[in-house]
Amino acid sequence: MSRTNQKKTEKTGLFRWPGGSARHLLASTLATVVVLALASCCPPENCEPPRTFCDLTMAEVRYDVCLLPDDPGQEFPWGMTGSNAEPYSEDCSLVMPAADELEFVVYRRSEESLAAATGYTMEARLRVEQYLEDRNELVNASFGVGDGNKAAYIHLTHMPAVTTYSRTCNQEECEDPAQDPRDMTFAVVCDEAGCHYTELDWTVPHDYRIEVTKEGPASFFIDGHEFHEVEYRQLRAPSTQQRRFGFGAAESLVYWEDVRYEVCGPTASN
What we know:
Elements: E1 2-3, H1 21-32, E2 57-62, E3 79-82, E4 88-90, E5 93-98, E6 104-110, E7 119-131, E8 139-146, E9 151-159, H2 161-168, E10 184-191, E11 194-199, E12 206-213, E13 217-222, E14 225-231, E15 244-250, E16 252-264
Antiparallel strand pairs: 1-11, 2-16, 3-6, 4-5, 5-16, 6-15, 7-12, 7-16, 8-9, 8-15, 9-10, 10-11, 12-13, 13-14
């Protein structure tokens, strides 16, 4: 199920953060950060061949999920921002155990090649195992790119049963949600027209992918199926001029199995 143009009236972030400035800080952090890197994977026999998006590649990076992003063994160590949560590696997955109230973890990495880029792609394979159910429209996991001019992100968020009832049902036509309460979980993309929701089961791993062409569209995929497309010029402006990739989790337990990106350079035809 997809619902479009659900505009947020709050001026404090992409999503509602009830309860004060700590959630504002987390919303801002997740909305402006972005990540990745490392041209290796673990174990090697499970590595997939590179998926090329660019005609000319300026940077191609894959994060080694068998190590923490800031581990000295990483070719490109990452800086971490977070609360009391302590990420760890388990069976070659990066685990972000930020499941308590106000906990969050964010990794980010600058990528100056974005300044001259004609396009870029970022993808991640992840699942959300736990989250605080009484939080309304909190960003539980997020990844994307800020190129200094525009920002492209995929957020995973949820709505409690009472909220989904009030937004999707007519009181005369729907059953009382108390009889069958159900949270709804979504992949969300926000652009200048508003935020666009696609319902999915995030407890199983999905492959999420962002493809951006500066002279054309920005496309967003789940398991190879496009669920939203918008022209690059209609993406939202980032809240920082820094060029960087990033991913993170908040008030949830998230397993990251793969994270990678590619930056495209100009060719003779550009």
